[in-house]
C-alpha cells in the first residue's frame, strides 16, 4: 500500500529464500546494486496532460477492513488508513525528503502564530465541504481534539499523543479559521489533524468506536467508497462528485483482499496492477513479466519483532537473552537472497539508515552472543536441561508463543524459532486467521512474540504511543519512567538537532529494556504496469491521494 503518515503497522509478508541462516546472501543469477537510500522514489512522474482520462487501478490489500476510524484502537491497520485518507481532507503533502507543504485543496495556510504559549492557526479553503453538504470548519478540529486527547476514557483511542498537550481549539477570524493552543511547545504539530475527520460523525463514544466499522459515513476527500463486497473481499473507491479540489484521473480503484501467496499469480493473471517483489521467487517471476517495470525506493519501513512482558518475559534478563540469541545479520542476509540489493538491518527505532541523525544504538542488546544469552537465562533462574534443549524454572518450561498471521508467508519466524532453541527457549508458532491478527492478538497484547512492519513514521511523535509505558500502541507493555520522561522532553524540543540527540537517548534505553528488536528495513521492490504513471515506489513522498495516478496515452 501507499505511503501513510500515521502510526501504521502491517503484517510482515517478507520471506526468506530458505531457512538456512548461512546461505542466504548469494545468488549468481541476480545482479546486485546498492540498496536505494531512504527517501528515494521511482514512480514514472508524468504531467496530467500525458494521461488518459479514466480507467481502473486494481490493487491488493492484506485483509478486509473492519475499522476505518484512524483514531480508534482497531484503526491502525495500514490498508484501512490508506483508504480512509483517500476519502478525507488531507492537510499536507510531502516531498521526497518528507518536507510538508499545505494541500491547497484544504488549507489556505497553517503556521505557528504564537510561541508562549504555542499557537497554530489553520485557515481552511472556503470551498471545503463535507459530503453531507455542511462546511468544513474549526469545529471539526475541536471535535478531533476533544475525542482524541485521552480525557474521556469512553473513546477507545489508538493514540492521544499530541492531542493531549493541546489546551484549546477556538474559532479564529471566521468559521474557516481554527486556532490551536498548546500547553507546551510541540514540535510535530503538523502530524495532527491529518486527515481531518468530520466532527459530527465521531463526536460521541458510540459514533467514534463503532460508527466507522466497515463503512466511512461522511466523505471530504477526492474519493468515496462506491461498493464494499465482504463476500468477495473487495472495496471499490470512485471519485467523490462533490469534491471541490483536484479531481482524480482514474474512474475507480479496486482493492482486493488477497493472501500474500496469491498476489504474484494475481498480477501475472492481470487481476491486479501492482505486486511486491520482496520475495526472491516472486521477484524472479515478476521481473520477467510482460509490460512490467520493477520500481524500487526507500520507504520508512522496518520489520520489527515485538516482545510481550507477561510470564517469563516480565524479567528483562529473559528479554535481553532473546536479543542475544537472535542473529539479525543472518535474517537480513536470508531476506536478501535473490533480490537486486541487500536488505539492511536497522539499529534504531525512530530513524532509518541514511536518515539525518541515524545511529545504531543496538549494541550488545541485538548482537548474536549465544554464550551471553545462556548466561542471562542462568542469572534469571532458568536452568538448562540435561539435553540442553530446554530450560526450566520451578518446574515450568521456558516456552513462548509467537503469533503469526496465517495469511503471511514470512519464514523468518522459523529462523527465530530455531535461533532461540539454541539458547534453550522453546517457541511455539501459533498461526491465527489474517483478519484476526491485529484486532484480536496484536492490539490486545495477546502474544509473547509477534512481528509486523512499522511504516511511514516520519514524525517521531508517531512512534511515542508505541514506547510510552502507558502508550495505546505499546502492545507488549514494556517501558520505564526514564523513557517516558525523555519522550516528553523530545516531544517539546523544537530544535531539530537537539531532538535527534534526545531520540537517540530514548532509543538506547529501548534497546536496554529490549522493548522490541528492529530487524531490517523492508525494501520497496514493486512490479508495476509500465503504462502507469505517478505510481510505484513513493519513498517518503506523498502520492496526493492517487489523484495524479493514471495510464499513459
TrEMBL record:
Alphabetically sorted, this entry's keywords are:
Signal
Indicate yes or no for the key word Nucleotide-binding.
no
Q: Where is this region: Disordered?
A: 23-51
Looking up InterPro entries in the UniProt record yields: Peptide/Ni-bd, SBP_5, SBP_5_dom
Query: Has the keyword Cell inner membrane been applied to this entry?
Result: no
Gene3D superfamilies tied to this protein: Dipeptide-binding Protein, Domain 1, Dipeptide-binding Protein, Domain 3, Periplasmic binding protein-like II
A Pfam family this chain is assigned to: SBP_bac_5
Domain Solute-binding protein family as annotated: residue spans: 104-473
Q: Where is the composition biased (Polar residues)?
A: 28-48
Signal peptide range: 1-21
* PANTHER family, A to Z: MONOACYL PHOSPHATIDYLINOSITOL TETRAMANNOSIDE-BINDING PROTEIN LPQW-RELATED, PERIPLASMIC BINDING COMPONENT OF ABC TRANSPORTER
Q: What is this protein called?
A: Solute-binding protein family 5 domain-containing protein
Please tell me the species this chain comes from: Winogradskya humida
Amino acid at each position: 500500500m501507499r505511503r501513510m503518515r500515521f502510526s501504521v503497522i502491517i503484517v510482515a509478508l517478507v520471506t526468506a529464500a530458505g531457512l538456512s541462516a548461512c546461505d542466504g546472501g548469494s545468488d549468481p543469477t541476480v545482479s546486485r546494486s546498492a540498496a536505494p537510500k531512504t527517501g528515494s522514489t521511482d514512480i514514472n512522474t508524468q504531467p496530467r496532460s500525458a494521461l488518459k482520462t479514466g480507467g481502473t487501478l486494481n490493487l491488493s490489500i492484506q485483509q478486509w477492513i473492519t475499522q476505518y476510524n484512524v483514531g480508534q484502537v482497531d484503526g491502525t491497520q495500514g490498508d484501512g488508513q490508506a483508504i480512509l485518507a483517500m476519502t478525507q481532507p488531507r492537510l499536507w503533502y510531502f516531498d521526497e525528503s518528507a518536507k510538508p507543504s499545505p494541500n491547497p485543496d484544504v488549507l489556505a495556510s497553517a503556521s505557528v502564530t504564537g510561541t508562549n504559549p504555542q499557537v497554530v492557526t489553520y485557515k481552511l479553503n472556503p470551498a471545503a465541504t463535507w459530503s453531507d453538504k455542511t462546511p468544513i470548519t474549526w469545529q471539526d478540529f475541536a471535535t478531533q481534539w476533544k475525542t482524541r486527547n485521552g480525557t474521556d476514557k469512553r473513546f477507545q483511542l489508538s493514540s492521544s499523543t499530541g492531542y493531549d498537550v493541546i489546551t484549546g481549539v477556538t474559532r479564529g477570524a471566521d468559521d474557516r479559521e481554527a486556532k490551536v493552543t498548546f500547553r507546551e511547545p510541540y514540535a510535530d504539530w503538523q502530524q495532527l489533524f491529518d486527515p481531518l475527520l468530520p466532527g459530527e460523525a465521531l463526536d460521541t463514544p458510540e459514533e467514534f468506536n463503532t460508527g466507522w466499522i466497515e463503512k466511512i459515513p461522511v466523505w471530504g476527500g477526492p474519493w468515496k467508497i462506491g461498493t464494499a463486497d465482504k463476500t468477495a473481499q473487495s472495496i471499490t473507491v470512485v471519485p467523490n462528485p462533490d469534491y471541490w479540489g483536484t479531481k482524480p484521473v482514474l474512474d475507480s480503484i479496486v482493492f482486493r483482499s488477497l493472501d500474500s501467496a496469491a498476489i504474484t499469480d494475481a498480477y501475472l493473471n492481470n487481476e491486479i496492477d501492482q505486486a511486491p517483489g520482496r520475495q526472491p521467487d516472486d521477484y524472479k517471476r515478476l521481473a520477467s513479466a510482460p509490460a512490467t517495470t520493477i520500481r524500487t525506493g526507500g520507504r520508512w519501513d522496518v520489520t520489527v519483532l515485538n516482545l510481550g512482558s507477561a510470564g517469563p518475559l516480565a524479567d528483562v534478563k529473559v528479554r535481553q537473552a532473546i536479543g542475544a540469541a537472535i542473529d539479525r545479520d543472518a535474517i537480513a542476509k536470508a531476506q536478501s537472497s535473490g533480490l537486486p540489493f541487500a536488505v539492511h538491518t536497522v539499529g534504531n527505532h525512530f530513524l532509518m539508515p541514511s536518515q539525518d541523525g541515524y545511529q545504531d544504538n543496538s549494541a550488545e542488546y541485538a548482537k548474536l552472543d549465544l554464550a551471553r544469552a545462556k548466561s542471562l537465562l542462568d542469572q534469571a533462574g532458568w536452568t538448562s536441561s540435561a539435553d540442553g534443549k530446554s530450560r526450566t524454572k520451578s518446574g515450568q518450561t521456558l516456552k513462548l508463543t509467537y503469533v503469526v498471521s496465517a495469511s503471511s508467508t514470512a519464514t523468518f519466524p522459523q529462523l527465530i524459532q530455531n535461533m532461540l532453541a539454541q539458547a534453550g527457549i522453546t517457541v511455539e508458532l501459533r498461526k491465527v486467521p489474517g483478519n484476526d491478527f491485529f484486532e484480536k492478538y496484536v492490539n490486545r497484547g495477546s502474544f509473547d512474540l509477534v512481528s509486523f512492519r512499522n511504516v511511514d513514521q516520519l514524525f517521531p511523535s508517531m512512534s511515542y504511543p508505541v514506547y510510552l509505558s502507558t502508550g495505546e500502541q505499546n502492545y507488549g507493555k514494556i517501558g520505564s519512567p526514564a523513557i517516558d520522561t525523555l519522550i516528553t522532553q523530545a516531544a517539546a524540543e523544537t530544535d531539530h538537532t537537539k531532538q535527534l540527540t534526545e531520540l537517540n537517548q530514548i532509543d538506547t534505553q529501548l534497546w536496554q529494556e529490549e522493548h522490541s528488536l528492529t530487524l531490517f528495513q523492508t525494501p520497496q521492490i514493486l512490479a508495476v504496469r509500465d503504462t502507469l504513471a505517478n505510481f510505484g515506489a513513493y519513498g517518503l513522498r506523498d502520492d496526493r491521494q492517487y489523484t495524479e495516478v493514471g495510464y499513459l496515452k
